[in-house]
Design a protein that fits this description.
alpha/beta; three-stranded parallel beta sheet; 12 helices; globular
């Protein structure tokens, strides 16, 4: 009997039919449009199994927690095969632009130590709000401007603010990452209208990050036209993280295929599936 993985591998979408192309960020291409994280897992084993099941090629790592050997992060650098996975260091825990810039520099050095000499990626987070964990738009923009000057490829985590997203793109960020709802909340996409505007106006990839709780919500984000997703809590805190990671993988792929294929228009009235001409009386 075939396993689900074997069945999936034999039924991959035909890219020629889809007319799609891989995700490209800062000149680097990725076949997977699902990014995952390393936090909140109950064990390294669950994390490792989930990364494999997700099919992701980008994994984000909190620089400060690795540097300080915070609980659950000791040995994290050795737990992942960085020859196969592209590291996305993040500035989680930084409350000011100055702190985020400093941690970003540490993140770039950490990537180099793990063999990714050309990795200048950084997920920029500036979050002074301890209750709702909403990113600081002014601090994020200030840090982004400085880090662009230092040659970083910046993926900024932001509120779903179309004007801020455009401004960050203009200063040189390689993606924008609007939140669907507060991080870790599992509330789903509460900012759909603004995310839609960001997608419409953006010339860089749009990665929906934070708040997605179910694969159906992931598919919806991709159907809206998002270029990629970053999912952590919904996988790590599920009862079966590896199985949930696979579900998010399939949902991300399905949503992307649907977006590229083009949905039917919404109509006010019913429209018969069968033609009305040539019927038998």
């Amino acid at each position: 009997m075939q396993t689900l993985d074997q069945s999936i591998s034999q039924h991959q979408p035909d890219t020629d039919i889809l007319g799609d192309s891989p995700l490209e960020i800062a000149g680097k291409t990725f076949n997977s449009r699902l990014m995952t994280g390393t936090g909140k897992y109950r064990s390294f084993t669950e994390m490792q199994q989930s990364i494999v099941a997700s099919g992701c090629q980008i994994v984000t790592v909190a620089v400060r927690r690795v540097q300080t050997k915070a609980p659950g992060h000791e040995g994290l650098a050795e737990a992942i095969d960085w020859q196969k996975i592209w590291m996305l260091p993040n500035t989680a825990g930084c409350q000011t632009a100055e702190d985020a810039v400093r941690v970003a520099r540490l993140g770039r050095e950490m990537a180099k130590l793990l063999g990714q000499e050309d990795n200048n990626f950084i997920k920029l987070e500036v979050i002074p709000d301890p209750k709702y964990l909403l990113p600081d738009p002014i601090g994020t923009l200030e840090a982004a401007e400085q880090l662009v000057k230092e040659g970083f490829a910046i993926l900024p985590y932001i509120n779903a603010d179309p004007l801020l997203a455009k401004r960050l793109e203009e200063v040189g960020c390689v993606t924008v990452m609007p939140l669907g709802s507060p991080i870790g909340s599992g509330q789903g996409i509460k900012n759909g209208a603004n995310i839609g505007i960001i997608i419409e106006n953006s010339k860089v990839p749009v990665v929906v990050d934070a708040g997605i709780g179910t694969p159906s919500e992931a598919a919806t984000a991709m159907e809206m036209g998002a270029d990629a997703l970053l999912i952590n809590t919904a996988i790590a805190q599920s009862q079966n993280p590896a199985a949930m990671a696979q579900a998010f993988r399939l949902a991300t792929e399905a949503g992307r295929i649907a977006a590229v294929s083009g949905r039917i228009p919404i109509k006010a009235y019913a429209s018969a599936s069968s033609p009305l001409t040539g019927t038998i009386n």
